[in-house]
Amino acid sequence: MRNNEGRTQIPPELLEQFMKQQEEKVTGAPAPAPPMAATTMGYQVPTDYVNLPSEGRLYPDGHPWKNKDKVEVRYMTTKEEDILANQNYAKAGVLFDKLIDSILVDRVAVDSILPGDKNAIIINARKNSYGENYTFASICENCFADFEHTINLSNLSSVEFDMSKVSQNNTCIVELPVSKKIIEFRIATSQDLKKVAQQVETRKKHGLEVSETSELHRVMIVSIDGSDNSNLISSFASQMLVRDSRFLRKQYEKMKPDVDFTFVHNCTECGHKNKGGVPVGTNFFWFND
Ligand SMILES: [Zn+2]
């Protein structure tokens, strides 16, 4: 449906799977959260800077990261290892959010961060604490031979997006091909995506019709032909023409900032060039170099 070539991100399903696997891996009682700062008082944990794939563009007015291209993070300590082993966090699907919250020097609501920027922070934490080489297993899509591939997390760059399409309000403006409506949209935050997932689940539970794309459009559309009326946006999102809807989704994917988390591997058995998204598995936060 969408063209992901060269633009792969860490898909939410994989993150969710990772959390579940973490959960299964962990046994015993969940670790209680350590008291704030008590263990590190008097000692400064070293910090690093993470380049944000969004470059701070696409954050709204008033957001502390608006137009900020990098953020300061602390190196992981045993406190963060406890977070990664916390069963309750894994169950609630907030493991990475808790980790990000713990290492960010800025006080910022994690839910308000763009998903692609979160990916950059997670990858940086992995690199600084467990080494820059990440090895994963995969299968050749041509001959199905198993292979192992190692990527260097220090060499990852951000997916490029067209800055000239970003408005002064850090939104994007496009004209739909069929209805010719002028749509202003923003990139969904983690909170928005949670809202979409909840909405989809609630409607399913009640046996109601639901479209994830419509729900996403509902949260990302800021205005239609200059009007920000929420009733208008809501009814428009649920009745969008197929071509317009697909076009908007494509434009959204094009403008979504992220880390370029793709790899290329030439199969040693058949020579096929495998290209794909790097899987984030259970061993993402393990030493393997
Ligand atoms: Zn092969």
Summarize the model shown:
This protein is of the alpha+beta class and 289 residues long.
Oligomer class: single chain
Give the N-terminus to C-terminus distance in angstroms: 37 Å
What structural category do the secondary elements indicate?
Answer: alpha+beta
Q: Averaged pLDDT, please?
A: 85
How many domains? The number is 2
Q: Which ligands accompany this protein?
A: zinc ion
Determine the strand fraction and express it as a percent band.
15-25%
Going across the major beta sheet, what is the strand order?
A: 5-6-7
Give the H and E element order. HEEHHHHEEEEHHEHHEE
Radius of gyration: 20 Å
Outline the biggest β-sheet.
3 strands, antiparallel
Shape: globular
**Total helical segments:** 9
Helical residue percent band: 25-40%
pLDDT < 50 stretches: 1-9, 22-39
Number of strands: 9
Describe, in plain words, how this protein is organized in 3D.
Helices cover 35% and strands 16% of the residues. It has helices spanning 12-25, 78-84, 87-92, 95-103, 115-130, 190-205, 212-220, 230-238, 242-255; strands at residues 47-51, 70-74, 133-139, 146-152, 172-175, 182-185, 221-224, 262-266, 273-277. Strand 3 (133-139) and strand 4 (146-152) form a beta hairpin. Helix 4 packs across helix 5 (115-130), helix 6 packs antiparallel against helix 7 and helix 7 (212-220) runs antiparallel to helix 8 (230-238). It is globular and about 50 Å long. The model is unreliable at 1-9 and 22-39 (pLDDT under 50). The chain is α+β, with helices and mostly antiparallel strands and 289 residues long. The protein starts with 11 loop residues before the first helix and ends in a 12-residue tail after the last strand. Bound molecules: zinc ion (ZN). Zinc ion is lined by residues 140, 142-143, 145, 267, 269-270, 272.
